[in-house]
């Protein structure tokens, strides 16, 4: 009965392996509007739909498994027959037939189980692959606004955590659960065939089992959920402390950080122990059911043999049948919990993959050039706190316009509205003469590329990262794009050149290199309009200048909108638009605005003041850079 | 393996020794449990023999009571034993986690060299858990051995030849099963790798969703995921086929084995050597015995994993310290005079530098590596290969690194914020409230706090990534200022802050650090303009120094470096 011996450590494994991301999203702000979760009926419908294409496979798999289990059940009556032969003092020759039959049964059962399990696995894995692919497709198509509203952690947790919970169930729980279930059902049938009164006797165990399962599920689910949260918090704390080890040491925070670690670790341990308490309590209760059932089958056997209704061999077979039920019953009931959590995960996946993406417009609208027109735009993240008010802006095709303003002026929000990341509350965005609403999400994205402050290097070979922007690009095109932005030199100097695995778990690129890649992707995607949102801010002073040059190269031949906080970069633009508290307050060339003595002139003065006696010089530098562009 | 530190064996033995009592108690209880499990089929056999066959209801009642007692003992032993042994494993894991945490965060450093935070976290969670699991399964192993012993005695008492047949038959049976499962293990590993890879790709794509949407690459991303998903499917199917084959083969082998036992037993029973009940018991025991044998195999596998994990843990625990503590005491009070002579490390080639107490000095270098190495030396993250750094006349190498950091705070450019409130990030364990207030104002982090929904008490999620780059820098700067150390070294503290705010910060910073030694490693003119003196590092050594305005006027190279 190894199931019992290892049962508790199985739980341990399961709870500890729970994905961190899942918990991260749950520990996040509670007031977030999480992505939808499907209801029970909807989940069932989705499951049925997924299985529809595999009806034949389903029937075959179930059929083979049932046959295998059925054959296996012949063992007990055969053993009973052997006992009868002994009791009846038949000669040893009589043993040959049962011996051959027992071996045949063993082999046939093994073969049927092998084939059946493989079929069930194939079915489960195939459906699972289709499910996760469909889910990822829908997830990536969700409007960004919706994802940000829910926090990206919610989506990440579904894409990794829930998918792996279901995979684990399909891979481990499903085969064992289905085998156990068939064994239980067929054994009960077998008992009934021996004598219906044996079945009635065995069923005395059921009420206790039902109570035990209810007891277990009620307690286990919340403990496991809490434990997942606690291990997530622990893991998070470790990453936080270990990732920030230099800061920890510099500020001498080892004591407080270790205390936090100890608290989180202790909390996780406490919950793990509570989980073990529940599991062990559950199996203890099942022991009681075993005893009741066993006793009742033995007493029934005694009575039936006593009044001559059955032979001693039959009574033996019934006892062996029931004894052999111990393991499958424990396994099936224990796995109910897995089945339950797989169901919950499935509902979370179906919730996102269910509703089809918003219909794309007919596609007749298309931008004719790279011009951008924004009129009377309003936007607020929180109702009542407008970030943009009545913003109007016109950018000609090929023009380079800098957006300038202090933090919180609404520069980034305006950039996101033009790029179609957010939809305006009022007003309109026109790209190349076509209304953004008529272009639809994919039309807008073909017209505009937005490079934001957030850098992300996609895990995998560097070339694959670039190909996301243009899947059909050959190596030459990739090199050309890198060369355009001046990144080819370092890219080729990487350990494996363009095949170097970068991103999470691979070669770590600097912030500057990552932004360089983003600019190379822009060149590959080749949209008529590009928006750079402080794309050079995080790179430190040396990197910023390299990236500014790269950005100018990447913008060649397209309309450029730059959100800039380094004024020299703004000064090189064809035109500068100054935002203040959500409104456009000034617009004009660098010279005009400095001369006008307004908002921009004050910014420029502040910048120049830190560079004593070099105002003219800096403007000169700006001029030179402008000539290059 | 570094000399002197604990080895994997030490770690594993230490974990077990720490839970000695639990392991012994759980083993005894586990033995009780397994013995009773073995007794169940024996008693069933006796009931068939003595009660059912003979029709004696009194005997039936007595034996059923006995069966009830066996079940009670079995259940209690299991419950108590499992709880003890699992708790022992959890506690061992907890202890190891804290030991690892303490080693990694140790002021002497060294454990985090060449290891990514993710890898260290994985060691502190997964490897610690596996060592804990090895502690847990010890008692399961002991109980399996007990079950083997009891069943062996019972079988041999029934019939010596039958007993020997069962006991000698099971090991080759398990060996055969193990042989069959060889490819299975490899395939399972591949399956898990592929699944993890697919999951990683999906998470990575979702992580970069903004970037994907920014360039309209969703469909390219979906097809990339589909490829890895199909890869994962293929590996999963190969593994599933192996697994199914293995299960089938084990079932068939077991079935044949039971058939042989049954027929041999029946032969013996017909010859009158054993009774019918003994035959039933023998068959039941043969079935039962597979359990303990499988349990032993499982224990063995867990132990092997535990040993490998203990080795990884030992490597971290035994990592040599990056810097060794010296015996000198920190001057009290610290005046804040720094003197560098011929400091050489990495990109630094003989740096000579004197920083007077209370001075505000700018350090300009075009070489990021030189800046990094200078910061590491000043923070005593590393000691110079050559040359000396003195604080108030005491070489840093004579001080404990923690004491150095009590006096000198080096705030890196890519400062890490912690996942707690803005205020708690800024406030150290013993920072006075007024210092926090002043630091928040000086760094303009008070403006950041005002923009947060919950103000300064708002929790910064994902290590401050909920803030913009400039906001993050301001909070980090506030934290550095609030610590109020005699010597403060700031590296590029305002690169993502807008010009107007930067000028304001520069003025306030100078004011706040008036009587304290401060070093600004930066090329920002706004910051350099408020310094007393600027030192230019080029080629790893000091090449120029003077006032910012003078250098701007006289030195074209300097002008190019700081003004653009």
From TrEMBL, chain A:
Its main location: membrane. InterPro entries: AAA+_ATPase (IPR003593), ABC1_TM_dom (IPR011527), ABC1_TM_sf (IPR036640), ABC_transporter-like_ATP-bd (IPR003439), P-loop_NTPase (IPR027417), Type_1_exporter (IPR039421). It is found in: Cell membrane. PROSITE patterns: ABC_TM1F, ABC_TRANSPORTER_2. Residues 59-341 form the ABC transmembrane type-1 domain. It comes from the Bacteria. This is ABC-type multidrug transport system fused ATPase/permease subunit.
């Amino acid at each position: 009965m190894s199931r019992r011996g290892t049962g508790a450590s199985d739980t341990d494994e399961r709870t500890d392996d729970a994905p961190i991301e899942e918990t991260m999203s749950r520990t996040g702000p509670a007031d977030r509007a999480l992505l939808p979760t499907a209801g029970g009926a909807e989940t069932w419908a989705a499951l049925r739909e997924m299985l529809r294409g595999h009806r034949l496979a389903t029937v075959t798999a179930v059929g083979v498994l049932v046959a295998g289990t059925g054959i296996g059940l012949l063992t007990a009556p055969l053993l009973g027959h052997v006992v009868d032969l002994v009791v009846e003092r038949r000669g040893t020759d009589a043993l040959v037939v049962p011996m051959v039959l027992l071996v045949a049964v063993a082999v046939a059962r093994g073969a049927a189980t092998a084939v059946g399990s493989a079929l069930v696995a194939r079915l489960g894995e195939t459906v699972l692959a289709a499910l996760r692919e469909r889910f990822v497709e829908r997830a990536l198509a969700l409007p960004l606004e919706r994802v940000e509203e829910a926090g990206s952690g919610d989506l990440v947790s579904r894409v990794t955590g829930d998918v792996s919970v279901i995979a684990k169930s399909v891979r481990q729980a499903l085969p064992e659960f289905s085998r156990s279930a068939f064994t239980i059902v067929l054994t009960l049938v077998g008992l009934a065939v021996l004598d219906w009164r044996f079945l009635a006797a065995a069923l005395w165990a059921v009420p206790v089992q039902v109570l035990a399962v209810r007891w277990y599920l009620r307690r286990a689910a919340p403990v496991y959920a809490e434990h997942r949260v606690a291990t997530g918090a622990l893991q998070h704390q470790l990453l936080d402390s270990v990732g920030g080890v230099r800061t920890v040491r510099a500020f001498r925070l080892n004591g407080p950080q270790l205390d936090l670690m100890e608290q989180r670790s202790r909390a996780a341990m406490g919950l793990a122990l509570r989980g073990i308490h529940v599991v062990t309590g559950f199996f203890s209760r099942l022991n009681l059911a075993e005893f009741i059932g066993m006793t009742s089958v033995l007493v029934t056997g005694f009575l039936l043999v006593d009044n001559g209704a059955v032979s001693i061999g039959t009574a033996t077979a019934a006892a062996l049948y029931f004894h052999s039920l111990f393991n499958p019953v424990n396994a099936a009931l224990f796995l109910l919990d897995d089945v339950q959590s797989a169901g919950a995960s499935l509902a979370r996946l179906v919730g996102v993959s269910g509703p089809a993406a918003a219909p794309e417009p007919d596609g007749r609208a298309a931008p004719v050039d790279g011009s951008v027109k924004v009129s009377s735009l309003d936007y607020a993240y929180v109702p009542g706190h407008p970030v943009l008010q009545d913003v109007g802006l016109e950018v000609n095709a090929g023009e380079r316009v800098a957006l300038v303003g202090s933090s919180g002026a609404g520069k980034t929000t305006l950039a996101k509205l033009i790029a179609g990341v957010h939809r305006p509350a009022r007003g309109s965005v026109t790209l190349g003469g076509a209304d953004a609403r008529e272009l639809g999400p994919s039309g807008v994205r073909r017209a505009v590329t937005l490079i934001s402050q957030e850098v992300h290097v996609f895990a995998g070979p560097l070339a694959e990262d670039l190909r996301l922007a243009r899947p059909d690009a050959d190596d030459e095109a990739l090199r050309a794009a890198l060369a355009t932005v001046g990144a080819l030199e370092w890219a080729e100097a990487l350990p494996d050149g363009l095949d170097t695995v970068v991103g999470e778990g691979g070669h770590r690129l600097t912030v500057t290199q990552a932004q360089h890649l983003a600019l190379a992707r822009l060149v590959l995607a080749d949209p008529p309009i590009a928006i750079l949102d402080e794309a050079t801010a995080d790179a430190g002073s040396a990197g910023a200048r390299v990236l500014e040059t790269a950005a100018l190269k990447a913008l060649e031949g397209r309309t450029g909108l730059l959100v800039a906080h380094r004024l020299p970069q703004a000064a090189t633009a064809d035109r500068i638009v100054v935002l203040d508290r959500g409104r456009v307050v000034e617009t004009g060339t660098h010279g005009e605005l400095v001369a006008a003595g307004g908002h921009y002139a004050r910014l420029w003065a502040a910048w120049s003041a830190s560079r004593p006696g070099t105002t003219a010089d800096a403007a000169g530098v700006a001029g030179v850079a402008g000539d290059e562009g | 393996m570094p000399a002197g530190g604990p080895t994997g064996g030490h770690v594993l033995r230490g974990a077990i020794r720490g839970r000695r009592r639990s392991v012994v108690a759980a083993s005894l209880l586990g033995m009780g449990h397994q013995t009773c499990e073995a007794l169940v089929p024996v008693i069933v056999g006796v009931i068939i023999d003595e009660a059912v066959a003979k029709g004696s209801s009194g005997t039936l009642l007595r034996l059923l009571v006995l069966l009830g007692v066996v079940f009670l003992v079995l259940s209690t032993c299991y419950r108590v034993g499992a709880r003890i042994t699992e708790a022992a494993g959890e506690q061992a894991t907890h202890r190891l986690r804290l030991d690892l945490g303490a080693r990694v965060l140790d002021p002497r450093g060294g454990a985090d060299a060449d290891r990514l935070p993710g890898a260290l976290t994985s060691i502190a969670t997964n490897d610690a858990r596996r060592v804990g699991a090895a502690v847990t399964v010890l008692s399961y192993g002991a109980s399996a051995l007990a079950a083997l012993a009891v069943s062996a005695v019972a079988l041999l008492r029934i019939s010596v030849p039958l007993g020997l047949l069962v006991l000698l038959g099971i090991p080759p049976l398990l060996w055969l099963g193990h042989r069959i499962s060889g490819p299975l293990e490899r395939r399972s590993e591949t399956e898990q790798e592929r699944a993890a890879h697919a999951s990683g790709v999906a998470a990575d794509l979702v992580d970069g969703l903004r970037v994907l949407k920014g360039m309209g690459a969703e469909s390219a991303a979906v097809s990339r995921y589909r490829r890895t998903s199909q890869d994962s499917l293929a590996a999963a199917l190969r593994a599933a086929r192996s697994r199914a084959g293995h299960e089938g083969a084990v079932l068939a082998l077991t079935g044949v084995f039971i058939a042989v036992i049954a027929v041999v037993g029946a032969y013996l029973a017909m010859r009158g050597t054993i009774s019918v009940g003994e035959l039933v018991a023998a068959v039941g025991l043969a079935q039962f015995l597979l359990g303990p044998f499988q349990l032993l195999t499982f224990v063995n596998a867990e132990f092997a994993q535990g040993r490998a994990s203990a080795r990884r843990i030992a490597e971290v625990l035994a990592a040599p310290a990056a810097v060794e503590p010296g015996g000198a005491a920190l001057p009290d009070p610290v005046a804040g005079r720094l003197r560098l002579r011929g400091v050489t490390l990495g990109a630094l080639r003989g740096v000579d530098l004197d920083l007077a107490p209370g001075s505000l000095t700018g350090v300009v270098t075009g070489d990021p590596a030189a800046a990094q190495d200078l910061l590491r030396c000043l923070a005593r993250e590393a000691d110079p290969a050559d040359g000396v750094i003195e604080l108030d006349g005491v070489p840093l190498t004579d001080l404990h690194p923690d004491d150095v950091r009590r006096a000198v705070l080096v705030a890196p450019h890519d400062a890490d914020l912690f996942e707690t409130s803005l205020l708690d990030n800024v406030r150290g364990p013993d920072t006075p409230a007024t210092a926090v207030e002043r630091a928040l104002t000086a760094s303009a982090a008070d403006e950041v706090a005002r923009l947060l929904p919950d103000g300064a008490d708002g929790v910064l999620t994902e290590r401050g990534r909920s803030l913009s780059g400039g906001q993050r820098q301001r909070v980090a700067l506030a934290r550095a200022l609030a610590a109020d150390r005699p010597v403060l070294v700031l590296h590029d503290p305002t690169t993502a802050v807008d010009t107007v705010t930067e000028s304001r910060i520069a003025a306030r910073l100078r004011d706040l650090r008036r009587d304290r030694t401060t070093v600004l490693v930066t090329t920002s003119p706004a910051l350099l303009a408020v310094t007393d003196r600027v030192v230019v590092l080029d080629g790893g050594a000091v090449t120029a120094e003077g006032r910012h305005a003078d250098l701007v006027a006289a030195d074209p190279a300097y002008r190019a470096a700081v003004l653009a």
